[in-house]
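Weekly modeling sync, notes
Attendees: S.R. (lead), two postdocs, one rotation student

Agenda item 3: backlog of single-chain predictions. S.R. asked that every request posted to the team notebook include the full sequence so nobody has to chase files. The rotation student volunteered to paste the first one in as an example of the format we agreed on. Action items at the bottom.

Example entry:
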Amino acid sequence: MDISIVVPLYNEVESLPELTAWIERVMNDHQFSYELILVDDGSIDTSWLSIEALKTKNTNIVGIKFRRNYGKSAALNVGFEAARGEVVITMDADLQDSPDEIPELYRRIIQENYDLISGWKQKRHDPLSKTIPTKLFNRVTRRMSGIHNLHDFNCGLKAYRKEVVKSVEVYGEMHRYIPVIAKWAGFTRIGEQVVAHYPRKYGITKFGFSRFVNGFLDLLSIFFVGKFSKRPMHFFGTLGVLSFMTGFFMSFWIIADKLIAIAQGAKYRNATDQPLFYIAMVAVIVGFQLFLTGFVAELVSRNAPERNSYQIEKTV
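Predicted structure, as returned to the notebook:
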């Protein structure tokens, strides 16, 4: 099978007939063998009834329904598990992404040997309340992830080589950072393609302001897990050493200053009368705690079943 198209959706009953017809036309025009995986993320409208009706007209449609709303990441992860195509395309169900972009995305994955192509909505039809925070988060993500050639990490229209989606796990709200997760998994051939973006035709957006806060926290989680999951002591131990040594040198300076003052017959303050003494004490205690955290994290990591799980690309 050439292409698997994964579409997560929540309360998009109005757009489904038009979206599926559009995708079917593009696939037939380019003679692709394909499957269209519609993942209903616990919709409370009649989206699932629409999927069932569309399935009777198009046997390439695969419908998956959640019992309740789990979020876009969960829908994508389940869609990835079900995908059988050599190239996996993800797109939103609100008709803001164009299926006409699929042939070029497919070509670049196959012919240019990319692992992942991320869409870039260069001209967006969204309010400033979405575009300005999105630009800020994209800038922060580029700096933290080292993927400097992507402008729009959160674009729903992406193309993946099959091996990528079978090797990554998407959970929480980490769908925004799949390129980062893929990079940490060893898939570094990541490209970008400018794609068309249309105004929302039906319904309203399903994401509120909280997605920006959650998105930043998820980015920190990905950065930590990707870099230190197999060696947590390197992270906590480094912070522990810095904190402990800071407290140690503060204490040494307080004691040395007092001894010098005594030797010279000058006035001096007791160590416990100085605020710096308590700062030093806290720094030493925090250093020990970070060390202990590192040891506990190492024990957990060494007993994890995936402690020696690595991505192997080829064998001969």
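Discussion: group reviewed the output briefly. Residues 232-302 form one domain.
Action items: rotation student to repeat for the remaining queue; S.R. to check formatting next week.
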